[in-house]
Amino acid sequence: MWARNAQGQFLLTPVGEDMNAPIYAALKVARHPQYALGHRDILGALMALGIERETIGDIVIHEDFAAFVCLPELGGYITENFTKAGRVGLVVSAIGLDELPAREEEFTIKTKTVASLRLDAVLSAAFGISRANSAELIINGRVSLNHQVCLRTDKEVTVDSMLSVRGLGRAKLMEINGVSRKSRTFIRIGV
Question: How confident is the model at residue 144 (pLDDT cuts 50, 70, 90)?
């Protein structure tokens, strides 16, 4: 059983354990500069260690290293056992959460109109799918709103909200630009 904080969010610390224990461990994966490793290489090597995808966060790839967060109980195991990705030797070290590099995301900006700012409508506009298909994705638990799975199709999306759909990608609502004569809302969305 997991504890909830005052806002109702789940904590990763089991009930009865120290609530001041770190929630995440941050790891840096260094490699020789002549070898290029991508997201798939790092993720595949972690999966080969028997680690489940749900226990690690986004993997950020930079020119010289990769970084990610994981559950604290996995930090030591990964540091000791994650020594190779394919034929490339790796050196894994723990870093502070404040040392994690900012993830640079490049978006293609689209200007669209939506009937409302409901999650299913914005999702439909962002990915060019029907509203019925976007509602099905939401109900099946494949959509995250601001990094949390959202099962409500009528959830209102606000500016700077991050949408993530398993299998389709990510989108961010950049701005809301007013209403048309037919009461449709103009939005700019980055995909």
Answer: confident
